[in-house]
């Protein structure tokens, strides 16, 4: 089992990576 705080941190980390990726894709498709 993963400790809740670690799971939460990992979730935020993954969400940040995905958010940045989507933002980059949207920016590139705009250009």
TrEMBL record:
The chain crosses the membrane at residues 6-22. Keywords: Membrane, Transmembrane, Transmembrane helix. It comes from the Bacteria. This is Uncharacterized protein. It comes from Acidithiobacillus ferrivorans SS3.
